[in-house]
Design a protein that fits this description.
Helix content of chain B: 25-40%
Number of strands of chain A: 10
Helix content of chain A: 40-55%
Largest sheet of chain B: 6 strands, mixed
Largest interface: A-B, 28 and 31 residues
Strand content of chain B: 25-35%
Strand content of chain A: 15-25%
Largest sheet of chain A: 10 strands, mixed
Radius of gyration of chain B: 17 Å
Bound molecules: adenosine-5'-diphosphate, magnesium ion
Number of domains of chain A: 2
Structural class of chain B: alpha/beta
Oligomer: heterodimer
CATH superfamily of chain B: P-loop containing nucleotide triphosphate hydrolases
Distance between the termini of chain B: 21 Å
Number of strands of chain B: 10
Strand order of the largest sheet of chain B: 6-7-8-3-9-10
Chain lengths: ~425, ~230
């Protein structure tokens, strides 16, 4: 009862000053709207970029790095067992890049219930040849069907399909950067110089466009057999094993397990892409910093109108107090005013934010980097709308608090005497 | 019979800009249903006394009882409750809330008291407005009626919670003689018909002479309490 009259007074005060109240509310609308737009767009972008990485990157990559032996032959000699041996310029032995016992590792992983899929790869260095020009590059033999299932390989192929790679023996999906440099078309044969110095010709069945220019001008794909042939190796030759898990959080512990069990190199996705999380958190930081700044500005707007209102309403406050309204009642009136501005402005802000986000989400956005994306990425997560609403209420409450407390302390006698 | 109001040894100083004593050993009593006027030269402390009696000013020494309850020393919130329920106040300037209707202005103290439903309060307010013969203005905005009408609305508002006493600080001071007479007649009717107690500061000797009792003040002291 008593509270509802306070609310009514608050409403009437604001209603009598439609213009000022609207401007104060619009400040909040703008702040909250901007927050929603920014956060929806930024997290949408984060999602897209994360998806890009997560879709394409194996959770665990197992490889065999060429490195010098940790134990040099001299240390195995009994004669020098107790001496301190200093060796300069150690070179690695021409050891195989192939993962030893790769069949065993693959089978063990395939049997693991945490694993969604395992794909072997053969990576070999080549030079793409065009007349006298030699371009340095990388040819990767893959299991096309599995790569498509696990890493959406087909999304990055333009003018071709993964199946053609499987059906064509000497087919290659050429990095689009290489194709442009050497002006090659689909169906052309591209000569490559193999590591052993021979030349093979592979038929272009499509182009590969990852969106990362550095990759697109180096990398091409073929099937595993062809890659082994180009590398001059047998069918045991596997340079990388990619593992995709059901739960990405298992990547790190499993990687440690693999390294420990097989005495081999392996890296998990988080370690390999640490810089990505930094990008995400910086985008979040910007979003919140800009939004909070706008809300503080809106808060000053509310503070301002309430201060003005209190100045204009001195008489009313004195009358209310003279007729038995307490300081707390007066305070509540002005807090309600602030909250009303905040709730109305904030709700409009949420609507505005949703509207603009929606428009952004249907606006065309075409980029070379991500050929499958046609519109801007926008995240419509309801959580951000809740955060926005809470923001609006908290800011306006604090903006209203000081003026309201000032109003509650007004001495009616001073005002009544003043006349 | 116990007095409605008992004031004993009230003293008040202002400290700014220099220390001056504006009320000196004020003691008085007032009974239920009495119509008392306070007179005295401008600046003698009449308003100051009234603000203290109405519980709005708590910066004094001495004791004030209302219906045998000691008011001195209560917290501001407790005093707000006392003011709301037991004291009606009418100012020289007809203070109404300009953005509310006449009817809503009258209802305001009762809505705060919260003892009755909104419908009952509205019913009471209409009754008070009828009593003061301004029911025809009830739906107008408070800012849209004349000075004399405003003062009658303010009296209706002071009456809404059926207070023990109505205090007025020169309530007719700003009215023409016709409206002043009207307000006096209303006060008189309140005491005779409803046994309402009235304590009214006035400069108008005619007005004062028609009240039950005149309290004469000079320089912060009561100099006489004569029958009217
Ligand atoms: N806030 C104040 N500070 C200092 N002196 C004041 C203040 N208010 C009133 N006074 C002084 O107190 C005295 C009594 O004032 P007041 O009660 O308003 O007189 P009255 O109502 O009888 O004309 C006056 O001399 C006035 O100047
Ligand atoms: Mg005065």
């Amino acid at each position: 009862m008593a509270n509802s009259i306070l609310f009514e007074i608050a409403k009437t005060h604001l209603w009598a000053r439609k213009k000022q109240s609207s401007i104060a509310a619009l400040g909040v609308t703008f702040g909250i709207g901007t927050f929603i737009i920014l956060v929806s767009f930024m997290t949408g972008l984060n999602g897209l970029l994360d998806g890009l990485i997560l879709n394409r990157t194996p959770h665990i990559r197992i490889y065999n790095e060429v490195e010098v032996s940790k134990e040099q032959p001299i240390e195995q000699s009994r004669d020098y067992k107790n001496s301190m041996n200093v060796i300069h310029s150690i070179k690695p032995k021409k050891s195989q890049a192939s993962i030893l016992n790769n069949k065993g590792i693959i089978n063990a992983l395939k049997a693991d219930i945490r694993v969604k899929g395992v794909t072997p790869q053969v990576s070999t260095r080549v030079f793409y040849q065009s007349g006298s020009v030699l371009l340095n590059g990388n040819l990767i033999g893959i299991d096309v069907i599995e790569e498509t299932r696990l890493y959406n390989f087909q999304q990055y192929i333009v003018n071709g399909s993964p199946l053609e790679l499987k059906s064509t023996d000497n087919g290659v999906i050429l990095g689009i950067g290489i194709a442009q440099k050497l002006s090659l078309n689909k169906g052309d044969y591209v000569p490559m110089v193999t590591p052993s110095g021979g030349i093979v010709r592979l038929k272009i069945v499509g182009f590969f466009q990852s969106g990362l220019a550095d990759i697109d001008k180096l990398q091409s794909y073929t099937n595993i057999k062809t890659a082994q042939k180009v590398a001059g190796e047998t069918s045991n030759y596997i340079t990388d094993i990619s593992v995709k898990l059901f739960d990405i959080e298992q990547a790190k512990p499993m990687t440690d397990e693999i390294i420990h069990n097989n005495n081999i190199n392996a890296v998990d996705i988080k370690t390999a892409n640490a810089q990505f999380e930094t990008g995400t958190s910086i985008r979040n930081l910007i979003t919140y910093a800009v939004s909070i700044t706008l809300l503080i500005v809106a808060g000053f707007g509310i503070y301002n109108i309430l201060n003005m209102m209190i100045y204009e309403k001195m008489n009313d406050i004195a009358i209310l107090k003279a007729t038995g309204y307490s300081g707390g009642d007066v305070m509540r009136i002005f807090i309600y005013e602030a909250l009303l501005i905040g709730i109305v402005g904030g709700s409009l802000g949420l609507l505005l934010g949703f509207g603009v986000s929606y428009i952004i989400s249907i606006s065309p956005f075409e980029t070379q980097a991500i050929p499958t994306v046609k519109t801007f990425p926008v995240n419509f997560d309801g959580l951000y709308y809740i955060i926005g609403a809470v923001f609006a209420v908290i800011t306006t409450f604090f903006a209203g608090f000081l003026p309201a407390r000032k109003a509650s302390k007004i001495d009616p006698v001073e005002i009544l005497r003043g006349q | 019979m116990n007095p409605l109001i008992k004031v004993s040894n009230v003293n008040k100083h202002f400290h700014d800009p220099v220390d001056i004593q504006v009320l000196k050993n004020i003691s008085l009593e007032m009974n239920q249903g009495e119509f008392v006027s306070i007179m005295g030269k401008s600046g003698c402390g009449k308003s100051t006394l009234l603000y203290i009696l109405s519980t709005m000013d708590t910066d004094y020494t001495g004791e004030i009882y209302l219906n045998n309850e000691l008011l001195s020393g209560l917290t501001p919130n407790e005093l707000a409750v006392v003011r709301n329920e037991h004291i009606g106040f009418v100012f020289q300037f007809h203070y109404l809330l300009p953005e509310f209707s006449v009817l809503e202005n009258v209802m305001m103290p009762a809505l705060k008291l919260g003892k009755k439903s909104r419908e009952e309060i509205e019913h009471d307010a209409i009754q008070k407005l009828r009593l003061l013969d301004i029911m025809d203005q009830s739906l107008k905005m408070a800012s849209q009626i004349s000075g004399g009408q405003k003062q009658r609305v303010a009296i209706a508002r002071a009456l809404i919670n059926n207070p023990s006493i109505i205090m007025g600080d020169e309530p007719t001071g700003n009215l023409d003689s016709k409206n002043a007479q009207l307000v006096f007649d209303i006060f008189k009717q309140l005491t005779t018909e409803f046994n309402t107690s009235l304590l009214i500061v006035t400069h108008d000797p005619d007005f004062a002479s028609k009240t039950d009792r005149i309290i004469e003040m000079a320089d912060g002291e009561i100099v006489s309490k004569k029958r009217g």
